[in-house]
């Protein structure tokens, strides 16, 4: 049994937080002792955490202020490996590990396209973290664990990080027995009692996710009775609703908020769409594939091309092209659901917990 520590800012609604909750549970299931440490607070993903995972909350007012408390914790608690997640948390963890003498056991993780993600948050402290991180990544003893090959290559191509400074590990998106488990009943009324085709998307209501392009594409569909549901929270809710109104599709477009079980919603949909401008390794796309539901994705950096085998599993369209996106969605909805269904499910199988845990254990402990 190994003692493992995962360091996060909180357990909010982001994909990284959800994946670390799943990874913590999968690592425990594999026979390890796992602690999940939150720098600032808990969050919506906390109830999903395996009860066998020890929780530590530093309750810092902000991530950067958590360095002294994290340093004391690392000095007092010895782990075989420590994993920090997300760039600004990585910088905090590196500082605390260096001060506590545990840097040799620290691993950090990049979850998104670094060259794109660094422009999302304008806060000075975040910008400083993104400037500092690549320099630290050259100095720390262990390579940065990237969520996809594309993320690893982007970090090397656009910063001072070298190929030897990066490695990869897959997200634990799916239960090992996902093929045998029927999806739960959906919660959205358009899916519970379907009367027309329904398209589903999942993600933060942010510029990165390209939902403005999706709504534009939706308005162009020849299937005039179709409905669109975008599950997620974010700052662009008002703008997206205004766009739907301006395009005359507001009554057929709904933004109901966060979905606690997106697989249940996607499984009843006629098509799932990933309209992102950039990604790391889109978990929602894997979840959609696991249901067998037809999918369409943008050829964005990074992830969809790897997951969809460059379009062999499901259609890929160019980013910010609503006409092409509309055509692909329309074609998928016009194709019998059974066509390529097994191909989609097989593509998702790479991201089951048991396999992902092995990629992480190899990255963290240097073994298979």
UniProtKB/TrEMBL annotation:
Glycosyltransferase subfamily 4-like N-terminal domain span: 14-173
Under the heading InterPro entries, the entry gives:
Glyco_trans_1 (IPR001296), Glyco_trans_4-like_N (IPR028098)
Transmembrane portions of the chain:
none
Q: Which GO terms describe its molecular function?
A: glycosyltransferase activity
- Could you tell me what this protein is called? Glycosyltransferase
What Pfam family does this protein match (any one)?
Glycos_transf_1
Top-rank lineage group of the source organism: Bacteria
**Keyword set, alphabetical order:** Glycosyltransferase, Transferase
Q: Could you confirm whether the keyword Cytoplasm appears in this record?
A: no
**Tagged with keyword Transferase:** yes
Source species of the chain: Pseudomonas iranensis
All copies of domain Glycosyl transferase family, residue ranges:
190-341
């Amino acid at each position: 049994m190994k003692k493992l520590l995962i360091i996060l800012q909180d357990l909010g609604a982001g994909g990284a937080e959800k994946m670390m909750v799943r990874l913590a549970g999968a690592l425990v299931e594999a026979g390890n002792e796992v602690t999940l440490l939150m720098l600032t607070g808990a969050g919506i993903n906390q109830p999903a955490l395996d009860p066998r995972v020890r929780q530590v909350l530093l309750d810092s007012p902000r991530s950067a202020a958590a360095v002294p408390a994290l340093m004391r914790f690392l000095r007092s608690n010895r782990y075989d490996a420590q994993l920090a997640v997300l760039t600004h948390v990585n910088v905090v963890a590196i500082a605390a590990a260096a001060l506590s003498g545990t840097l040799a056991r620290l691993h950090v993780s990049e979850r998104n396209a670094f060259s794109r993600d660094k422009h999302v948050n304008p806060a000075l402290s975040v910008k400083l973290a993104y400037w500092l991180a690549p320099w630290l990544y050259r100095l720390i003893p262990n390579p940065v664990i990237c969520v996809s090959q594309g993320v690893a290559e982007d970090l090397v191509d656009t910063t001072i990080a070298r190929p030897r400074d990066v490695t990869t590990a897959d997200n634990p998106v799916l239960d090992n027995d996902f093929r045998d488990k029927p999806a739960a009943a959906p919660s959205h009324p358009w899916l519970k009692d379907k009367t027309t085709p329904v398209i589903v998307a999942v993600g933060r209501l942010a510029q990165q996710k390209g939902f403005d392009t999706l709504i534009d594409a939706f308005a162009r569909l020849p299937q005039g009775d179709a409905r669109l549901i975008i599950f997620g929270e974010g700052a662009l809710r008002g703008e997206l609703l205004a766009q739907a109104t301006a395009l005359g599709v507001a009554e057929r477009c709904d933004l109901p908020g966060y979905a606690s079980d997106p697989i249940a919603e996607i499984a009843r949909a006629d098509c799932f769409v990933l309209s992102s401008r950039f990604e790391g390794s889109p978990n929602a796309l894997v979840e959609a594939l696991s249901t067998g539901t037809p999918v369409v994705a943008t050829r964005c950096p990074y992830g969809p091309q790897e997951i969809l085998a460059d379009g062999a599993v499901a259609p890929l369209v160019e980013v910010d092209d609503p006409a092409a996106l509309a055509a692909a969605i329309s074609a998928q909805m016009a194709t019998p659901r059974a066509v390529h269904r097994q191909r989609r499910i097989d593509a998702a199988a790479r991201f089951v917990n048991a396999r992902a845990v092995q990629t992480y254990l190899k990255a963290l402990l240097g073994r298979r």
